[in-house]
Amino acid sequence: MTETRWLDAEEQRAWRSYLRAVRLLDEELRRGLEEHGLSHPEYEILVRLSESDERVMRMSELAASVVSSRSRLTHTVARLEREGLVVRRACTRDGRGVECVLTERGMATLEAAAHTHVEQVRTHLLDAMSREQFLALGEALSQVSQRLDPHGRLTV
What we know:
By secondary structure, the chain is mostly helical. It has a single domain, classed as Arc Repressor Mutant, subunit A (Orthogonal Bundle). Helices cover 62% and strands 8% of the residues. It contains 6 helices and 3 strands, in the order ααβααββαα. It has a 3-stranded antiparallel sheet with strand order 1-3-2. Strand 2 and strand 3 form a beta hairpin.
């Protein structure tokens, strides 16, 4: 068994600052999206669909894109489907899988929520640091993602 590599005092402060900031930011973003009747995972699904060709993705690709288990994604998509924001259908390409399609109502909901969401991201994250700091944060977190998913199985 290897010896534990404990965090020193500065590392511990940085780690705790990261945890606190992520939790506080997530809470702010959650409240903003709730104004539009969406959770953060639901919003991310709508975003990914809106960015895909013809606003359609295979469920397996969508799960990888939003870093979700297939079963969790299925439950979330079912909620979105009940609201008329998405529909599921057999894959038109090969008929073996299931696709998720963003509806016009889903796109309208996303467009309304996006204004709130982007403003909150800017206000609570980007405005708290310089552009250089924000881009450096993005690069550092990209390295963390690469270490956790070295083969790019999970797309973000």
